[in-house]
Every structure is written in structure tokens, then in C-alpha cells.
């Protein structure tokens, strides 16, 4: 709760990003609406991000002093509310990446919260090179949310560059890169980006490689 008389600007900021003292003897209060909050637990400080397609809890700070904090334990969690992304859409993006090779390109895989359907939405490319891509976000229909931000690396391998880190720092999404785009089996890298937290996905699903495999010309 805000102290009475807090100025309007800080009051609005605190409403948009509240802090919860995690109870020991019962579950913490659910989030009132989509967004973010801090959870203070006995085992550290955590960020909780709750979106229609994703819920994530991650520790963002440890205590540096072994002092007793009379709150409950927080457990990190990930819930992919949108379900599994169809591998065919990865295949479709790889086809786009091959067509653009050796230039980079990009697209979003979006999920419609009303219809529960996924779709590949190409970005509006402003300029593209063999190591650069400038783009505008795709136009989305009502109810569509970005789940995976895809881009390609042309002839270069798939990895997350320092430019990618800079681009991804503020956002909550999966980031996906396709590289070696002329190869029949391109390289792929994926990570979860959650407000500055980057977690590499160790193994991209094998169904994605299958969907990306270049079909032999008949
Ligand atoms: Zn990149």
C-alpha cells in the first residue's frame, strides 16, 4: 500500500510495479492485472511477470547479509500459457530467412489471446544488410501478442550478439535466431528474455530442425 499523500507520479509508478511481502502460511495474493511486480521472500527478491501468454518468476537479487527475513519462500516458475508453438511456423520463418540470405530478416510469431491461434507476422524491414537489420514491429490484429521475436543471421551462425542483447534487454519474449541460412539444416539459437534476464534454451526442439530442413528438390 502506498503511504497517504504520495505524489501522483510515484503513486502511478508503484501501482504499475508493486512489491509484495510473500506470506509464510498461505499463498501470496494473485496479481490484479497483467504486468510485473516484485516479490520479497526469505530467499531473496524476485520479479514476477504475468502476461496472458506467459507467467515467469525469477530471482533478481540475493541478500548479502544472513539476516532473518520473516517472509515465505519464493519458488522460480515458468508457465507457457499459450501452449506449444507450431513447428510449421518455425519452418515458415526459416524459408523467409533462406529467401533473404545473405541479408538478415525478421518476423514475430504471435498468439491471439481470443482465438488461441499462432501466426507468423513478418516485420516491416527498414534496412537490411549481411550483419544488420532495422525494422518496425509488424502490424498486429486485436488480441495478438508477440511470443517469439525471430531474426536471421544470413551466412553467419545463430547466436545472440551484443546488439541483440541491447535490443532484448527491456522486453519479455522468446528471441530466436536462425543462422547459416544457406545450409540444408541451419543453425538455431533461442532464449527467454524477461526484463533483462536472458536464459538460453539449451536445446531447440528437434521438431523445429525437422520443420527447417530444406526439402530436397524433386
Ligand atoms: Zn542477431
UniProtKB/TrEMBL annotation:
Keyword Zinc in record: yes
Occurrences of domain DUF2016 (ranges): 8-81
Keywords of the record: Hydrolase, Metal-binding, Metalloprotease, Protease, Zinc
Domain JAB: 88-191
One GO BP: proteolysis
GO molecular function, one term: metallopeptidase activity
One Pfam family from the record: Prok-JAB
Keyword Membrane: no
Protein name: PRTRC system protein A
Classification lineage: Bacteria, Pseudomonadati, Pseudomonadota, Betaproteobacteria, Burkholderiales
